[in-house]
């Protein structure tokens, strides 16, 4: 049993939730392969800083509601912290902490000079008007003023936030400074310093990773039948990129459920429909399937691009795909990881597969700081170079050590952050 002193030191932490425990358990699986000092490992199990705010907001009907907001910064050892902001009814401190931890490994794996952060507001964005969302965003940004900034912490879009949200954040921050500070957020509209190709970057990066995996597995991407869960920024673009490369997308889903057609779906028309109606609800072509059924469809590649905790011990043995690509963060539980490994279904892990977004965010920040902007082809080529380099390092470690690609990706990130802590003389 732990002594009183140990119990004091390891008192339950506010962010200690199932998702955070998953992030730490994945870290613990990777640490023995990363060769870092135990003191460094212990440091990296905890975020550096967690900020909780309350955002009082007037609704359109005159009522005033207080929305909780969070921002967690996991590690600033490599540079400013970086990560998205999400609006969702389930946002919590623990969720943001887990996502911030993953951002640290993702940035290090892609060799970006950033640490990890994540934030969000606990609200139901689908039930809110644009005016209400604007008021929440501006209040949340005002509350974060002490901890964000181009050299401190740089937010970006995530679930249910977008270019408009970033424009409001940039404007709120800039008004406080008295001049325009585009480099305080990424994923902005191009008119205020956003980068071309940031909108497409995460989904495009997912498909670059799938394409690289297909090369290594000796599969033709154009012959693959794909299922995509989530039809927002990541899933919608990934589905389109798959079609552009000749693959057949046989099913997609969003929060309203899924659509399946073994002959292949008309993704451009479905994207236009989802944009106009806010979701795929009411889309008339193909068969409707539930989100649970969609995950169990027979296919070659399953792209998880909705949210965390979708493949668990309850359904991992029912999946009928040959490869999983994690566009979302944390969509596969630890137990499901073990079941899928046992079943021989490889997983292209989140911190590698969805890293296209933060990579082009980095390009956007660099362009903003230099006030010099690059073209689409240049950015796409630079992104492909970085994604392929990260993929190759992960693939190599995974095969050399016979460890899953998730562990290999974590090892790469953890090793570099550990080395930076040591070089700076911070630990051990
Ligand atoms: N936007 C970005 O640049 C990046 C996003 N991600 C991750 O990708 C995931 C998706 O993010 P975005 O596409 O940006 O969000 P989004 O809000 O644009 O889209 C989310 C999509 O998932 C659907 N969805 C929500 N719950 C669902 C469920 N239970 N079953 C099926 N579909 C469901 C929504 O209806 C929507 O179509 C998140 O895990 C996010 O953290 C990761 C890297 C970068
Ligand atoms: O673009 C960024 O800075 C962060 C993207 C993000 O939140 C993620 O990769 O999960």
UniProtKB/TrEMBL annotation:
The keyword Nuclease does not apply. The record marks 158 as: Important for catalysis. Keywords: NAD, Nucleotide-binding, Oxidoreductase. The active site is at 118 (proton donor). Residues 195-425 form the Glutamate/phenylalanine/leucine/valine/L-tryptophan dehydrogenase C-terminal domain. Substrate binds at residues 82, 106, 361. SMART domains: ELFV_dehydrog. The keyword Ribonucleoprotein does not apply. It comes from the Bacteria. One of its GO terms (biological process) is L-glutamate catabolic process. SUPFAM superfamilies: Aminoacid dehydrogenase-like, N-terminal domain, NAD(P)-binding Rossmann-fold domains. NAD(+) binds at residues 202, 233. One of its GO terms (molecular function) is glutamate dehydrogenase (NAD+) activity. PROSITE patterns: GLFV_DEHYDROGENASE (PS00074). Belongs to the Glu/Leu/Phe/Val dehydrogenases family. This is Glutamate dehydrogenase. It comes from Gaiella occulta. The lineage of its organism: Bacteria, Bacillati, Actinomycetota, Thermoleophilia, Gaiellales.
């Amino acid at each position: 049993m732990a002594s009183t002193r140990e119990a004091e030191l390891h008192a339950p932490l506010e962010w200690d939730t199932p998702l955070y425990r998953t992030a730490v358990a994945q870290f613990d699986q990777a640490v023995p392969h990363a060769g870092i000092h135990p003191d460094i490992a212990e440091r990296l199990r905890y975020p550096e800083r967690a900020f909780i705010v309350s955002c009082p907001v007037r609704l359109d009907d005159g009522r005033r509601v207080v929305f909780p907001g969070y921002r967690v910064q996991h590690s600033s050892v490599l540079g400013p912290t970086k990560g998205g902001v999400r609006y969702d009814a389930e946002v919590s401190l623990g969720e943001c902490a887990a996502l911030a931890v993953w951002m640290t490994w993702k940035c290090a794996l892609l060799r970006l000079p950033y640490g990890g952060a994540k934030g969000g507001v606990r609200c139901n964005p689908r039930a809110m008007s644009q005016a209400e969302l604007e008021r929440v965003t501006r209040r949340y940004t005002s509350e974060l003023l002490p901890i964000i900034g181009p050299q401190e912490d740089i937010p970006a879009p995530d679930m249910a936030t977008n270019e408009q949200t970033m424009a409001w954040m940039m404007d709120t921050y800039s008004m406080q400074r008295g001049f325009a500070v585009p480099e305080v957020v990424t994923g902005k509209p191009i008119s205020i310093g956003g980068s071309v190709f940031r909108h497409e970057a995460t989904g495009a990066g997912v498909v670059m990773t799938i394409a690289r995996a297909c090369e290594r597995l000796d599969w033709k991407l154009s012959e693959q039948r794909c299922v995509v869960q989530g039809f927002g920024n990541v899933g919608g673009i990934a589905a389109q990129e798959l079609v552009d490369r000749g693959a057949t997308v046989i099913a997609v889903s969003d929060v309203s459920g899924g659509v399946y057609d073994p002959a292949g779906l008309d993704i451009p028309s479905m994207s236009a429909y989802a944009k106009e109606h806010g979701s795929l609800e009411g889309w008339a072509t193909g068969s409707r399937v539930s989100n649970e059924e969609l995950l169990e469809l027979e296919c070659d590649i399953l792209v998880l691009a909705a949210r965390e905790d979708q493949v668990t011990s309850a359904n991992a043995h029912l999946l009928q795909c040959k490869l999983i690509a994690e566009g979302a963060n944390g969509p596969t539980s630890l137990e499901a990881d073990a079941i899928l490994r046992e079943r021989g279904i490889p997983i292209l892990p989140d911190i590698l597969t969805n890293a296209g977004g933060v990579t082009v965010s980095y390009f956007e920040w660099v362009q903003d700081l230099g006030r010099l902007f690059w073209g689409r082809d240049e950015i796409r080529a630079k992104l492909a170079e970085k994604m392929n380099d990260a993929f190759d390092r992960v693939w190599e470690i995974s095969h050399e050590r016979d460890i899953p690609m998730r562990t290999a990706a974590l090892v790469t990130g953890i090793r570099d952050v550990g080395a930076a802590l040591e070089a700076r003389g911070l630990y051990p």
